[in-house]
Amino acid sequence: MKVTLFATCLVDMFQSDVGKAVVEVLERLGCEIEFPESQICCGQPSYNSGYVEDTKNAMKRMITTFEDAEYVVSPSGSCAYMFHEYPHIFQGDPIWEPKAKSLAAKTYELTQFIVDVLQVEDVGAQLAGRATYHTSCHMTRLLGVKEAPMKLLKNVKGLEFSELSGKERCCGFGGTFSVKMGNISEQMVDEKVCNIEETGADIIIGADAGCLMNIGGRIDRKGKPIKVMHIAEVLNSR
Amino acid sequence: MAMKTSVEKFNDRVDKGLQDSFMRGAVSSAQERFQTRRLGAAEELGNWEEWRSHGEEIRQHVLDNLDYYLFELSENVSKRGGHVYFAQTAEEATSYIQNVVEKKNAKKIVKSKSMVTEEINLNAGLEKLGCEVIETDLGEYILQVGDHEPPSHIVVPALHKNKEQIRDVFKEKQGYKKTEKPEELALHAREKLRQEYLTADVGITGCNFAIAETGSITLVTNEGNADLVAALPKTQITVMGMERLVPTFEEMEVLVSLLTRSAVGQKLTSYITTLTGPKEGGDVDGPEEFHLVIVDNGRSDILGGEFQPILQCIRCAACVNACPVYRHVGGHSYGSIYSGPVGAVLSPLLGGYDDYKELPYASTLCGACTEACPVKIPLHELLHKHRQVIVEKEGRSPVSEKLLMKAFGLGASSPAMYKIGSKMASPVMSPFTNGNKISKGPGPLKAWTEAREFPAPNKERFRDWFKNRPKGGEQS
């Protein structure tokens, strides 16, 4: 099966290990991975800040980039959701709305793709440790992917789970919110890190690079011995 | 209290909120209590999503036919001997009510909870006439006794106060001598208030839902105070926002079910009362005179536009109780009597961007509000819509942000620019980099690194790795 990877700009620039893990996991599951070089960013930072018109060129570039793809898979619920938002943004545009609809229809978040399309729940991963899982808001509430990550994680051998209290609560990232309202964001991520600590887990797993950068940055600043892992890295552990 | 509750700047209000650990403790525990109860009440109903859709349909139908239902309501109130007044502005509403009060030569006025009377600053208008105005909702009463503090929550106005603080307010202002036990505090207020109901000349209530078909108003409380306000004084004035009505009893029942479950997680509140007009021959109680004041105050400007869904709101505060930002900053940070996500959408619409332009940004767009709303208002989308208006129509965003976003837009749409930018990121950031992290970032990163580390850009971008790896995926 041919999979076109939408790596996201955060993974491309800051977390290339996550991208590598995605490629390796999907290849092991029999997928042929393609990475179109012309992909950049889904446009969320400026779109969410209100610069809708200024972001449209970036979105059009992404639509064109993935036009010929069969499946578009992204290791981020938030960025995958953004593709699902494109038809709404280009509503009424005779050229771009149909193209946006076709992109949205074939775009999946990584775990959603593995569970729903590949129909795999055990990727054969193995990782020793006690973990907890952060459900990111856009992935669960907006994209509607709730079950897939836990289905996959439950089959990772050696991994024990503790439930995260207040797991439905945002970590305080919110893209530009984290710098625009830095003081509020700090309190939010601080509470999240406290909740993570309370679980006694030594690994915090998430499926969105943005949330993990936020939570990880706080854990690092506070010097907590908790490892931050993207779910792709967990699924790639053996 | 007018809608605007503070002259302080947004950032100063937020700082004050963040430093108030008493408030934050009270708010976070209340949020969890309300959330748990709300989810329980929704689950108990079974088909919550169907109820939500039904609620949404009713609210949208009413808004789409608002002129029709307002006319019907007005006709039916008049038929039952009530007086109806349409107030286009806050001033018109207040002055009409002042006239009624003056004609009655009223000295004492009791009020049940009403956000719209806060919005139009009614109490100040009545006090100017020399009237004594007494709030009878326990939360509002506590705030009024405590030097007229503004509400911090639309359902639980004194949410930010814990029981010890309430005890201290009563002690300091009213010589209260008992403990902070909620029962004793409530008993104290009850004894004080009972006398007020009996001696008041005019009663002013809010309105949860007016019913067009019968000309009735519905009041939902847990304290029964609204019933006393409406039943005991000779004159009753009910003030409602112009969108707060339903066609018939049938729709009222659906919305009340959604309201009580979403607001406090109860199947029903202790008192749900529907009142129709003044006392008629044969009635043993009720007011001799009934006035219904229907307030526009900016609502008709919202109607028919892109923000119309906010008028679906039934003031349950489920969005406030779910909001992770409200949780930390508290209601007073919003600077408006309408706080939380609904307040962040509504306040700039009713009060203008000059006072409230920051509110739409006080959200991570996490969608918890939208998910909690019992009438499916797309709150986080409306917050985003405000941002778009602020940037694109109002041109109010800071120049530095505009430049940054333009640069971002350019970089994200031009592979050549992105290539240079992302390749340069690592060397450009290297003076700030310590190992694999940045602890003191420049420019927009400063706010980030005040609280957390920022990752150093990868020396080898993912795309370079992908391009250079041997084909066939055999690279380890």
TrEMBL record, chain A:
InterPro entries: Cys_rich_dom, LutA. GO terms for cellular component: cytosol. Residues 3-83, 132-215 form the Cysteine-rich domain. It holds the Pfam family CCG. Is involved in L-lactate degradation and allows cells to grow with lactate as the sole carbon source. It comes from Peribacillus asahii. GO terms for molecular function: oxidoreductase activity. GO terms for biological process: lactate metabolic process. Belongs to the LutA/YkgE family. It comes from the Bacteria. This is Lactate utilization protein A.
Automatic annotation (TrEMBL), chain B:
[4Fe-4S] cluster 1 binds at C313, C316, C319, C373. Keywords: 4Fe-4S, Electron transport, Iron, Iron-sulfur, Metal-binding, Repeat, Transport. This is Lactate utilization protein B. [4Fe-4S] cluster 2 binds at C323, C366, C369. GO terms for molecular function: 4 iron, 4 sulfur cluster binding; metal ion binding. Residues 451-467 have a biased composition (Basic and acidic residues). The gene is lutB. Residues 384-469 form the Lactate utilization protein B C-terminal domain.
